[in-house]
Specification:
159 residues, alpha/beta, Adenylosuccinate Synthetase, Chain A, domain 3, four-stranded mixed sheet, three-stranded mixed sheet
């Protein structure tokens, strides 16, 4: 899973960002269609959708990709729940409920430095480490691998 969310095409995308914030994230992550060059929809990490994905796929360990893309952000948004008609839920909704869902966002501290050379978890800035551990706890699945760059060797293994 990515350290943030992206989406191709139409349909519900509860955590979608708009404006300059979305443009900056899209640029940093290179979120454009490979064949068409069309900009992808982007947003914060979505705990609700990711937790659902982990549950239905029976995942034991996760790889968190593109953590480096968030390095320039002062505060990092995370969608921790959905508001559906005034009711807060942490469960992924189905059908029309998903269409009405609005994101509930918490903010984590950014790390504001290049993490591309990190090769072990102790190399990560505290805020980056805390972000990974926060996602791991909220999603309910161990994050084993974290990518910190675009090259094959740009990753670290978490304990």
């Amino acid at each position: 899973m990515k350290a943030y969310s992206s989406c191709v095409g139409e349909g519900p995308f509860t955590c979608e960002m708009f404006g300059e914030e979305a443009k900056a994230l899209r640029e940093a992550g290179g979120e454009y269609g490979a064949a068409t060059g069309r900009p992808r929809r982007v947003g914060p990490f979505d705990v609700v959708a990711s937790k659902y994905g982990v549950r239905v796929q029976g995942t034991d360990d996760l790889a968190l990709t593109k953590l480096d893309v968030l390095s320039a952000m002062d505060k990092i948004p995370v969608v921790t729940a959905y508001d559906i008609d005034g009711k807060i839920t942490e469960e992924f909704p189905m059908g029309m409920d998903l269409d009405r869902a609005k994101p509930v966002i918490e903010y984590m501290d950014g790390w504001k430095c290049d993490i591309g050379k990190c090769r072990k978890e102790s190399d990560l800035p505290k805020a980056a480490y805390d972000y990974v551990k926060y996602l791991e706890k909220k999603v309910g699945c161990h994050i084993k691998y974290v990518s910190v760059g675009a090259e094959r060797e740009d990753y670290l293994i978490m304990s």
